[in-house]
Amino acid sequence: MTQPRIPPLEPPYDPAIEEILLKWMPPESGVEPLKLFRTLLVHDSLMSRMRPLGTGILAHGLLEPRVRELMILRTCARCGAEYEWGVHAAFWAGRVGLGDDELAATVNADAGDPPWSEADRAVIRLADELHDSAGVSDATYETLARHFTAPEILELTITSGWYHTISFVINTARIQPEPWAARYPEV
Q1: What homologous superfamily does CATH list for 65-173?
Q2: Distance between CA atoms of residues 114 and 97, nearest Å
Q3: Which of 4, 11, 88, 157 is most enclosed, with most CB atoms within 10 A?
């Protein structure tokens, strides 16, 4: 495995940095602060401006957590950000009711493949179309509109954009996988 281009901060942390890390990590998570967060803290003022949107997407959104995670997992998979895909697969997939087949399909299947419902297929298509063209077709939007409100469609789109940004950071910095995170499934 290649070495990180931008190494994450390592303990012992400056007290101000430790305080920021505690805000980003779930309480009593039992794991070292994520390498992603420790890498972003190389530019602490930028990271502090990123926190409100990241927290808003994960903790204060309109979307059902399962739908949010489908968008995140598919976006990260399409961007080749196995680090972030693996963190979400390990931490969120079971909590939001995604089974092993669905989790694998976020990496290896297309929107038309099982196990997706029509609403799931629309989310997967949205992730794919945003990734491929930075837009969405009328047909996909019409299907989305049957299952989601306009604010929810905006939130799906913003979530995709946020996780593109996170994927760009991961791939540019070459952040190494967390030891407990999932890895892409075998094809």
Answers
A1: AhpD-like (1.20.1290.10)
A2: 16
A3: 88
